[in-house]
Design goal:
By secondary structure, the protein is α/β, with parallel strands linked by helices. The protein has a single domain, classed as Glycoside hydrolase/deacetylase (TIM Barrel, Alpha-Beta Barrel). The protein contains eight helices and ten strands. Helix 3 packs parallel to helix 5.
Amino acid sequence: MTQDNNISVDLACDAGEASTPEGVTVERAIMERVTSVHIACGGHAGDIATIRRTIESALSLGLAIGAHPSYPDREGFGRRSVRISIDELRASLQDQVALLAELAGEAGAELVHLKPHGALYHDASLRPEVADAIAEVASAAGLLLVGAAGSRALELWRDAGLRVAPEGFADRRYLADGSLRSRAEPDAMIADPLAAADQALKLALGEPIELRDGVLRLDVRTICVHADTPGAAGLVGSVADRLMQSGFRLLPPGR
């Protein structure tokens, strides 16, 4: 299907998470096909050197730069729900975003958005106090919030008057409630480029995507591809090509 009104959608990736030269190369290849990037800022991955390198790449490619903070959990890569007080969580998120903002400013860049990582992303819809802490940090920094399309967190942030971008995933399988299938399941990831492109286009069009036991329709404004999906560089290229061939302009949220 071709879009006649030439509407836009954001294509994004998480970055600054690679720990090997090969991983850095994959991240860079993915960044060459997206329009915005979520940069790890120390909670689950990333340090001053990786943040600077990723900012430089994003600037050279003209990408919108966003913070990708997490629970302070480098050992678990931010994929565990860490039981710390809300004050401790808020302080950690503030520190992570402040570090990224400082380094971005040194490079002549500005932060545009914030997308929570891993368990924090999912907990925001399960624990309102977590969603509130994220909202406070984003609001103080003047950042748009990226969250799961159709989620409780996105609803809370929107009701609070914050700018939001509903997110969908080209390379992940969904459950009927709109959450993502667990990575522990063998078919949780979509590694086939054509299948990922099909799902991305359906998400962008608001058309139903197929589930194990039905269909799901989501309203998304940004579509993410993960760097750790097998063949991610080729996959994101397939997604980008399909969206553009269908009449979508690839633009960061809010543009």
